[in-house]
Structure formats: structure tokens, C-alpha cells
Amino acid sequence: MLMYLLKSTACLATLFLFYKLFLEGQNMHKFKRFYLLAALVLSFGIPLITFTTYIQVPIAIYKTPLEYGNINTTETIVEPTNYWPYLIWSIYGLGVLIFSIKFIKNSTNLFLKIKQNPKQRLENHTNVLLTEKTTPHTFLSYIFLNKKAHQQKQIPKEVLLHEITHAKQKHSIDVLLIEVLQVVFWFNPLIYFIKHAIKLNHEFLADQAVLNQGADTVSYRKILLAFSSNVTEPYMANSINYSSIKKRFTVMKKRTSKRSVVLRSLLLIPLAALLFYSFSNQKTEEIIIQQEITKLSYSKELAKKGAKFYYNNNKISSAKGLEIIKKNKNILVETHPWTNKTPEVKIFTIETSTSKTEQNTKEGTDKLKINYGDKKDPLETYKKEYNTYVTLTKQEPHYIHRSEAEKKKIDDLFTLLGSLYFSLSKEDRAKVKRVKAPILPYVILIRNGKTEYKKRSELTAEDKKLLPPPPPPPLPPSNNKQDSKELAKARAAFKKDAYEYGSAVGEYRKEGKGTREELNKLYKKTMKSYEKCSALIKKEKGAAPLPPPPPPAPPIKD
Questions:
Q1: Measuring CA to CA, which residue among 437, 427, 525 is closest to residue 477?
Q2: Could you tell me the pLDDT band of residue 511, with boundaries at 50, 70 and 90?
Q3: What are residue 208's phi and psi, to 5 degrees?
């Protein structure tokens, strides 16, 4: 909200400054009327416009980047209540209330005058005859005149024509618009300057109409001086006012050539472009391509590194694997670029009619199936799979006491939910719960090559040394604010490093493969990507520093 107010104010200040320097003193009043109204619309509209740039990130990530089994749980910290927002909003609300009451009161007074006093209906307007002494003024199509002066014809025809012009050109609509904006943005001083400029330009328009009817300029000036006064101008009405007489006299003598009008109008083109560029929102969205091109290109990279290819769990040549990926759409490609062993590319057939969460592949192996061609709502898909997962994990016995086949099904569903969660928008993530690892409240310990399960609350100091290094903290999701190409690439690099590190941790945790030194090396690489990305986020978005990452577990000897 604060950023929107700053942008709209800066935009309005720029447009108003242009008006004062290049337009106000020129005899082009109809154009100026349009300009002032357009300045209000643009100033409050441009900061709401968002231009989206899509960046394709050709990285195939189809699984949850990190394993969550051994993540340290964090305690909830109750922060002290910040009362400043309540105070600021209370002051703002009080200002809106005061200005609303003032607006309603003065509007009511004008309508009561119309209702309670005699009226004289004419072709394009209605004269409202008042008993009190008043300067002629106009509101909507009603012209307020002193009854006695009007009946005795003491009001010159030039003054009447001046007020008729206000009524015919519907100047009161402009005034009502700025009055409503003044209620909402009562704290913005520029609103008051714009309001004065709009009403002054109305006077220029009315003066021009009188002079175009053949009135003598000198005589008309004398009449304006005679009918002007220093009394307060009627609220929301157009009237002859002494404070603007001098400037009006100056503008009456001004003659603006058509060439000057065209040149000044052309200056608005670069000004508008500058405002759109400076005060609109720039949004960068990275697209993780999951189509054949990305699957194929990423698989080709792994093939060059000597990756093993599998099709429905049967080992095949890399050439045949690449051909299958290229020709088939209904496939799922899992890439496993392990750093401590030969990379793997696993290809699975996908049945487009899949409705269950897990089904058997053609060879009978339990395998989670994902239909990437399905256009269902990601949020609804997540909710459905989450409910299935919760039902499975709540069944007895606990996950750690189940068979390997049952664990495999739960692990696959947990992996899918992790992928689905990270693919949701920031708004959708707030509507759902994040999936918890099925192993909780236990953790896995690898002791002398054997796997042990133990509750975190029961871990000894010696046990804690067996835990792998913790995962890096997650980055804030990419949102509607601007992301440069450099930041998008940094995010993608962090995701890739985090995926490799998480995969290595999974191998170490589940199969005892790898060493702590290798994990620490991958951890440092991932944290380097994290620090680079978080520094760019802080630089580009001015965000508060991200929370420090958890320290790595102390190294142990293999």
C-alpha cells in the first residue's frame, strides 16, 4: 500500500509539474481539461498495471528438492504486537470520516437550496433564485442567483453567459470527481493543487465562451472585477472569484498557435512512456519447462555424462531412451544427477486415464503416476492428494514399522505433494497445509552401516553427530514484484543445487551411500547458491534480510 501511494504521488507530481510549466498559461483550455482529468486517472492507474516477463528455465525438476525426514523442528516465537499500523489506519479512517461528513453536508446544502427556493426552468439550465446576497455560481445544471438582482436585471448578460457555460459543459462533474478523490486521499496535498487547477481551467473555458460570443474584452474585465469578491467560494460550485482574476486576465490576452499546441501535445508521448516505465510493476515469472524439449535436452546433458537409461524399470541404451523421450508425450522422466554415482534417467509410461494416486506399471512395479497433460486445478489436485496422504499416514502401524512396499507408496505420494506445493502460487499456498514427512516424530540414524529410527526428543549428543547436515532454508517464493533475469537464473541454480544435495542426503539416509565429507561439500555449494540468490533478492526488492541458515552438523570421521 505504501509503495502504491508513493508511486501514485510521484506520478501525479510529474504530470502536474508538466501542466504548470507547459500548459496552464496557454489558450488551449479544452485540451487542458482533458489533460487534468487524465492525469488523475493515470496517476492512480499506472501503479496498478503489471507487465509480466516470462523466462524459460530449462531445468527438469520433477521431485521435491529436499528430504524432510531429519529437518530440525523450530519453535514458534511470539512476536510483540506492532500497534503502529493500527494507529496509522485509525488516523486515516478519522480523516476519511471528517472529509466524508464535510462532503455530504455541503452536497446536502446545495440540494436543499435547490429544493427550498423558487426555480426558473430554461432550455439548458435552471435558475435558482435565492433571497440572500450571493455571487452567481453554478452546480450541475443549476445556476444560483440573487432573486432581487435577477428580477431587476442587475446581473450583466456576460455573467449569466459565463455561468450558463459552466452548466452546459458540465464542469460540476469534474469537481465532484476531485471531491471524492479528496475524501479518499485527504492526506495528499497534490489533490488540492489539482483541484484548484481544474476549477481555474473551468473559469478559462467560461471566459473563452463569453469572448467568443462577441463580448468586449475590456468591458468584460470590468464586469468580472465588479462581481468578484474575497468571500469563500461556494463548495463544489463554480463562481467568479477575485483570487483568480489576475491570472484569467493574463490568459485572455494569450494566443496559442496550432503549431505550439501540437508540439506541446507531442511532448506527452515520451512523458507517458517514462511514467509507464518508471511507475508500473514489472513481474518476472520463471517457467520450468516440463515439455518434451526440456526432458530431451536435460536428458541429453546427462547422456553425455554417461547416464544410465531405464524404461519402465528395464535398462536400455541412451540412444533408445532419447528416442522414446522425443517421440512420446505420455511419459514421466525422472532425472537423477547424483554426484557420488553414475547419473540415471528413468522413463515411465503414463496412463492418461489415471485417477488413483498410485497404480502398478506394466511390469508390476509400484510406481507413482503423474499425468502432466491433465489441466485440473493445481490447488484442487493438491487438496485431493493431501487428503489421501493424511489417511495413509494415520493408519496403524506407524510408517517406520511398515513394509518397504508400503513405505515406497507413501514416499512417492510425499514426493508428489512436495512438487505440487512448490508449484502453487503464493496465494494458493496460504490456503493449504504443507505436507509433513511421514517419518515424524522419528529421525533416521545410520550407525555402523545399519539404519536406526529414534524420536528426536530421545536423541543423545552422540546420536546428533550422526545426523546429516541440515537442508538450506527455503527462499521466499517469486511473486508479483520484479525479478531480473539474473535473479531468475540464481533461483534456478539454487533449486538445482538443493535438489542434488537433497538427493545425496536421501541416498545417505536410506542406503548409507556417500560420506559426510561429500555431503558437507554439497552443502557448502548449495549454501553458496542460496547466499547469492538471497543477496540479489535483498538488492532488487529491498527485502529484509532472510533468516540465517541453520549451521551444519559437526563433521564425524567415517
A1: 427
A2: low
A3: -60, -40
